[in-house]
Design brief:
This protein is α/β, with parallel strands linked by helices and 512 residues long. It folds into three domains: 23-346, Glycosidases (TIM Barrel, Alpha-Beta Barrel), CATH 3.20.20.80; 356-419, Carbohydrate-binding module superfamily 5/12 (Seminal Fluid Protein  PDC-109 (Domain B)), CATH 2.10.10; 429-508, Seminal Fluid Protein  PDC-109 (Domain B) (Ribbon). It is built from 13 helices and 26 strands. Strands 1, 2, 3, 4, 5, 6, 7, 8, 9, 10, 11 and 14 form a twelve-stranded mixed beta sheet that branches. The longest helix is centred in the N-terminal third of the chain and has 22 residues, at 2-23. Residues 342-357 and 507-512 have low confidence and may be disordered.
């Protein structure tokens, strides 16, 4: 009897300690965002509190330099700053209380550790991303052939463990999540081996996020996507306890749930007939809360809307809509209901430099664009700085304060891009010398790619046009046949050879 009492007391103490440990780890909802997908998704302007957590995807190896991080093999980090406004948009999300993580890998390109075989360069590549975006949490999405590439698995683990130690020594933390495929039986053998090798290399894993999607033949006939997801999570929970135990860390039941993430693919999956519905989302939300799951995600926030009538076949996956009729509902609000959207090390309070203030004094010497002037006229695409924030004109405007609190939403002539960043300096303005392109003429027939000058701006024809003045485009007309060229576009050849510049545009500190 004494032994039984003592054993019961021990188990009770362990249960108490487990519950205490789990309660110190908040549950988090954060949706993935495909950064390079078209049309661009405005993650910096979340439509609900649940959408304030964003996992930006994917950092992969550059095609020319495998040790250089790139966004989707399309943009270097510097190019993403200029072409996608990425740094400023991240700062904007933090302004409104959101959090940002970055995902490395994915299915379509090489994760950094696959292509980069130099250990020091690999660690530096991870560090460059973490430091540039001031990250407290990263996601390592390992799929396809990379799952069984033990050399890259070990390189990744060694580099990430070193980065965690570097961060810790400087008083900073870095949460690391592994995102891996799963089926209703849980993690695959390759996935379990990867977790084991990663833990063995000294990486402190915040958790393992299972992708509950594209089950194919592993899903039983008649099993709903929720049921398959819950089955995968139940199995993965047990597997994680075993994997951590073998690495010397005995996780309690509650703590192990906090170490688990679940990520469904909303709506139509890549497998024909697999559709994750809003009902599945509600059931998975209830399941996650009942178990105390540490992370709920979804692929992707870009897709969280009903497809338009012009999308002909909703049984085929779209990058920008779910393929199911959502009405006024969103998967983010259903999956993230009552789940804390910020927390743990991933929670990032807005920094002083990112917090807007109506009394900020704008300094032209540190403003990336000209400071707003109420007497100046602005046309669509023009940018200005006002009260420490960058705005872009949506149509012709003059005298309309960019941060007018009365005029908001679709009626506002200005779109907030994000705050002025530390280290910002005036961007070179493109000067277009007279004669660079022919002046526009109402009598001339222009083919697609023709370039002209109008009112000091350079334009390119989007299709055949005659007598359509570029003025309509400057005033924000969406159906104008003319596209106003940016500085980057001016450096590229036109869509056709029908308009050849007679002088090269130059970047200076003045001009339009």
């Amino acid at each position: 009897m004494l032994v039984a009492l003592t054993g019961g007391s021990y188990l009770g103490l362990r249960s108490f300690q487990d519950a205490n440990a789990a309660s110190s780890i908040p549950s988090v909802f954060s949706g993935y965002v495909d950064v390079t997908a078209t049309p661009r998704f405005a993650f910096e302007s979340p439509t609900s509190p649940e959408a304030r957590g964003a996992v930006l995807s994917f950092i992969v190896s550059d095609k020319q330099d495998p040790c250089a991080p790139s966004w989707g093999a399309f943009y270097s980090l510097a190019q993403a700053e200029t072409d996608l406004d990425l740094d400023r948009r991240i700062a904007r999300l933090r302004q409104v209380g959101g959090t940002v993580s970055v995902s490395f890998g994915g299915l379509s390109n090489d994760e950094l550790a696959v292509g980069c075989t130099d250990a020091d360069k690999l660690t530096s590549a991870y560090r460059e991303v973490v430091e540039r975006y001031d990250l407290r949490s990263i996601d390592l999405d390992v799929e396809g052939a990379a799952l069984s590439d033990t050399a890259s698995i070990d390189r990744r683990a060694k580099a990430v463990a070193a980065l965690q130690q570097d961060r810790k020594s400087s008083g900073k933390s870095l949460e690391v999540w592994l995102t891996l495929p799963a089926d209703p039986a849980g993690l695959t053998q390759a996935g379990r081996d990867l977790v084991s090798r990663t833990l063995g290399a000294g990486v402190e894993l915040a958790g393992v996020n299972i992708m509950t999607m594209d089950f194919g033949g592993s899903k039983a006939a008649g099993q709903t996507m929720y049921q398959a997801s819950a089955s995968a999570a139940d199995a993965a929970h047990t597997q994680l306890q075993s994997l951590f135990r073998k690495n010397g860390e005995d996780l309690g039941t509650d703590t192990a749930w906090r170490k688990l993430g679940i990520t469904p693919m909303i709506g139509q999956n890549d497998i024909a007939g697999e559709i994750f519905t809003l009902d599945d989302a509600a059931a998975l939300n209830a399941y996650a809360k009942s178990k105390g799951v540490g992370r709920v995600s979804m692929w992707s926030l870009n897709r969280d809307r009903t497809c338009g009538s012009n999308y002909p076949d909703v049984t085929k996956v779209s990058d920008s809509c779910s393929g199911v009729k959502q009405g006024d509902a969103s998967f983010a609000t259903v999956l993230g209901a009552d789940v804390i959207p910020t927390g743990s090390a991933a929670a990032q309070a807005p920094s002083a430099s990112a917090t807007p203030t109506a009394t900020a004094t704008d300094d032209p010497s540190t403003s990336p664009y000209p400071v707003w002037n109420e007497t100046a006229r602005y046309v669509v695409g023009d940018r200005t700085v006002w009260h420490a924030n960058v705005y872009e004109a949506k149509w012709w405007t003059q005298g309309d304060s960019p941060d007018n609190p009365v005029v908001q939403g679709a009626a506002a002539p200005w779109k907030l891009i994000g705050p002025v960043l530390p280290g910002d300096r005036p961007s070179p303005r493109t000067t277009i010398p007279a004669g660079t392109y022919p002046d526009w003429s109402a009598k001339t027939v222009y083919q697609r790619g023709s370039r002209i000058l109008f009112d000091g701006y350079a334009f390119e024809a989007k299709w055949w046009t005659q007598s359509d003045s570029p003025q309509a485009m400057l005033e924000g007309a969406p159906d104008s046949p003319w596209m106003k060229l940016t500085a980057t576009q001016l450096q590229s050849p036109p869509a056709t050879a029908s308009a050849t510049p007679t002088a090269k545009p130059t970047a200076t500190a003045t001009g339009k």
